Every structure is written in structure tokens, then in C-alpha cells.
């Protein structure tokens, strides 16, 4: 079973860009796969769209970025939790740890 962090972000989001300096590194330190999904990258977005829409059917309450932690994101996925919005490195790590423990 693969547990992954799916990061839904936008190219023109400053906070998303700032988080990219450490979000993937923290996910890998916690032994999680990491998939960066920019809304502008239609092929990648289409591949993981079903995960996002199961959590946010109309995308109304999404944060920028939105990190969805799920098992088996490529197939019959199961959402474990999420972290929304920008956070300092330490806080992001503890929020991610809280979701997976």
C-alpha cells in the first residue's frame, strides 16, 4: 500500500511556491510519497482529480495549497486526512504527523 501526500496548488500562488521549499522533503522524511499537482498541469491534475473532488466536490473550501494525504492514490484511494494552506516548516511537519498517526 502506498501512502502519499497530494499537493494541489497553482503556479500563481505565492504561498504554494514558498511551501515547495520544504513540503516534499518533510513528506519524504515521514516516509510518504509526494505528488505535486499544479492546476495548470492538466494531465497530472486529471489523473488525481477524483481524489480532490471526493474531498471538495465544488472546490469551494480548498486552501492554497491543499495537501490531501491518502492511501493508494493511483487506484481505489482512501483519504486519510488533509492539511490546508501555508504553514511554517515546523508546523507543517507536526500537522502532517498528526494526520498520519
Automatic annotation (TrEMBL):
It comes from the Bacteria. Gene3D superfamilies: Glutaredoxin. InterPro entries: Thioredoxin-like_sf (IPR036249). This is Thioredoxin family protein.
Amino acid at each position: 500500500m502506498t501512502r502519499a501526500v497530494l499537493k494541489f496548488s497553482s503556479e500563481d500562488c505565492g504561498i504554494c511556491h514558498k511551501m515547495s521549499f520544504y513540503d516534499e522533503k518533510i513528506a519524504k522524511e515521514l516516509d510518504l510519497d509526494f505528488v505535486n499537482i499544479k492546476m495548470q498541469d492538466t494531465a497530472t491534475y486529471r489523473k488525481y482529480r477524483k481524489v480532490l473532488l471526493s474531498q471538495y466536490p465544488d472546490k469551494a473550501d480548498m486552501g492554497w495549497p491543499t495537501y490531501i494525504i491518502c492511501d493508494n492514490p493511483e487506484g481505489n484511494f482512501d483519504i486519510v486526512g488533509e492539511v490546508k494552506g501555508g504553514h511554517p516548516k515546523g508546523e507543517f511537519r507536526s500537522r502532517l504527523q498528526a494526520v498520519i498517526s
